[in-house]
Amino acid sequence: MADETHAPQQHAPFHHSSSHSGGRPPGGGGGPAGSRPPGPRRGKRNYVRKKKVCRFCVDKVDLIDYKKPEILQSFVQERGKILPRRMTGTCARHQRWLTIAIKRAQNIALLPFASEL
C-alpha cells in the first residue's frame, strides 16, 4: 500500500436556503430556468379600469338637495342601502353630503328605508 494515493473526494457544494422549501428550484416557473422572462404572464390581458369621476364635481354642485329623490334614488340600492364611493365614483366630500341627504329623505319618507321583499 505504499504506492496507493488517495485523492480527496470532491463533493458538490451543499446549498441550503431557509426561505426555500419544496422540490422546485428557486426562481419560479415550471419550465427550464430562463424560459420565461420575469414580469406579467403572457396571454393575460391587462385590464385598465376607467377612472370614475364624481357626477357632482362635474356639474359643480354646491348642495345636494334631499328634496329631490329622483337624483338620490340612483345612489341607493333596491333594499335601501347607500351605495359606496367605489361603486358610484363620487368624491369623499360629495359622498358625505349624499349620505346626509339620503338619510334626511328617508326620515321624511321621500325615500324608503328598505324595499318590501
DSSP helix fraction: 10-25%
What characterizes the major β-sheet?
Answer: none
Q: State the separation between the terminal residues, measured CA to CA.
A: 99 Å
Q: Hey, roughly how much beta strand do the residues contain?
A: under 5%
Structural class: mainly alpha
The fold-level CATH name of the domain at 55-107 is 30s Ribosomal Protein S18
Radius of gyration: 32 Å
The chain-level mean pLDDT equals 79
Inertia-based shape: elongated
Annotation, overall tally of beta strands: 0
Helix-strand sequence: HHHH
Helix run count: 4
Do you know the CATH architecture of the domain at 55-107?
A: Irregular
Low-confidence stretches: none
CATH superfamily of the domain at 55-107: Ribosomal protein S18
Text of the CATH class of the domain at 55-107? Few Secondary Structures
Describe the model.
This protein is an all-alpha fold. Helix content is 24%, strand content 0%. The chain has a domain of 53 residues: 30s Ribosomal Protein S18, CATH 4.10.640. 9% of the residues are buried. The chain is elongated, with a radius of gyration of 32 Å.
